[in-house]
Amino acid sequence: PVDDKVDVQSTNSTSIIAHLMIQGSALFDQNRHNCAITAPLLTMNGDMLFDANSHGGGMDLTATTIEGAGELKLSGDGLRDIELTLTDASGYTGDIVVDNDDFILNFMNDVNSGGSLVVLGTTGQIILDRDLTFTAATINGNGLANGVYDFATLNAAYDATFVDGGTGSITIIPEPASLGLALVGLMACLHRRRG
Where are the beta strands (DSSP E) in 45-190? Predict the structure, then answer.
């Protein structure tokens, strides 16, 4: 388990960790050149800050499966790229947080997450070339209602957040428990009307 700071400093390195388990809080701090972390299983029992700073290159985080409820916060400066690949995020109920820093987040595959997307400001940018599904999303303090938002709609409302030329979408589908509660409430209203 990781519960500390990890400095990723080697030149153009790739670290493969069979099961990366985050406990408490962890900082992955890239200091030089490009680096990548690949984890077939990423368990988020705590919060992780993945930080690409101005002294280095881009950072890649790849998880075949991500699970847990800890926050995955992405940060950087100097317009560094962070590439994020989450093959199976259906068991992940935490927040993916795009910090208000000078960096570009690129989702490398379609993502279907059991958690939410939180964009904290207008300086962290997202390349939206994939279809992303979350249970909730907040962009620059504005919550998105349930539904499908294509790139054009998002770019019109949040031009500074989304890099021009995108082709993807963000879909908001409530978590099954919330949907179930809404259905129970609807059934109770219908039953009450009949009686």
Answer: 47-52, 59-68, 72-76, 80-88, 95-98, 103-107, 111-112, 116-119, 124-127, 131-134, 136-139, 142-143, 147-150, 169-172
At 58, give phi and psi (nearest 5°): -80, 170
For residue 131, give the nearest of 154, 162, 153, 110 by alpha carbon.
110
Question: According to the 3-state scheme, what is the secondary structure of 16-70?
Answer: ECCEEEECCEEEEEECCCCEEEEEEEEEECCEEEEEECCCCCCEEEEEEEEEECC
Q: Can you give the C-alpha Rg of the chain in angstroms?
A: 18
79 φψ region: left (φ > 0), alpha (ψ -120 to 50), beta (else): left
Rounded distance, CA 187 to CA 67, Å? 33
CB 126 within 8 Å of CB 162 = yes
Contact (CB, 8 A) for 27 and 3:
no
Residue with tokens 């998002």: 154
Q: pTM score, two decimals?
A: 0.83
Tell me the pLDDT of the chain (195 aa) as tens digits. Answer: 554 445 444 445 677 888 888 888 887 776 556 778 889 999 999 998 888 765 556 788 999 999 999 999 988 876 678 899 999 999 999 999 998 787 889 999 999 999 999 999 878 899 999 999 999 999 999 999 999 999 999 999 999 999 999 999 999 998 764 445 455 666 666 666 666
CA distances from 135 to 12, 97, 98 (A): 35, 14, 16
